[in-house]
Write a structure and sequence with these properties.
With 157 residues, the protein is α+β, with helices and mostly antiparallel strands. It has one domain: Aminopeptidase (3-Layer(aba) Sandwich). 29% of the residues lie in helices and 22% in strands. It contains five helices and five strands. Strands 1-2-3-4-5 form a five-stranded mixed β-sheet, with helices on both faces. The longest helix is centred in the middle third of the chain and has 12 residues. It starts with a strand and ends in a 19-residue tail after the last helix. 20% of the residues are buried.
């Protein structure tokens, strides 16, 4: 039976690292994952006994704006409702707030089930090496630099 833990006490940060690395979402070390998750407003760890099988986190001002990050489920546990349960728990904590989430094209339909909609004007500024940014673009996380929708004004330099 899967249980859900919403605090960062007694977390195996190596497992968190492994899940996020396997999902292609983060290469931060276990020690860095500890900093990232302990500084997050909301955390969810899906547990199968003592084993972490899914993670999610969010940042929030607790009143108006929230952002969900690092949602990942081990492949053997996908399709069993683990991701749905984690997102439901995060959204319950963010109730009444505007919420954004980064997702790959493959995740769009999953998040639409919760009421998320694509935004045409969202912008992002990612830190990282050029090859990492290219990976995000190639993976469908970002539109190509300078991309414009039909009818949208050109960028002024």
């Amino acid at each position: 039976m899967i249980t859900y833990k919403m605090d960062t006490e007694n977390v195996d940060w190596q497992e968190v690292h492994d899940i996020l690395h396997e999902a292609g979402l983060s290469d931060f070390s276990p020690e860095e994952q500890k900093v990232i998750f302990t500084h997050s407003t909301i955390t969810v760890f899906a547990m199968d006994g003592a084993k972490i099988v899914g993670v999610a986190r969010a940042l929030s001002d607790t009143l108006s704006q929230g952002a969900i990050f690092n949602v990942a489920v081990r492949p053997a546990y996908q399709g069993l409702g683990v991701g749905t349960n984690m997102i439901s728990r995060v959204l319950e904590k963010l109730k009444g707030q505007n919420v954004i989430i980064y997702t790959s094209p493959a995740g769009v339909s999953f998040y639409e089930r919760f009421g998320f909609r694509r935004c045409k004007t969202s912008m992002c500024l990612f830190a990282g090496a050029p090859e990492h940014l290219q990976m995000l673009e190639n993976g469908g996380f970002m539109l190509p630099e300078g991309f414009r929708f039909d009818g949208e004004p050109s960028r002024k330099v």
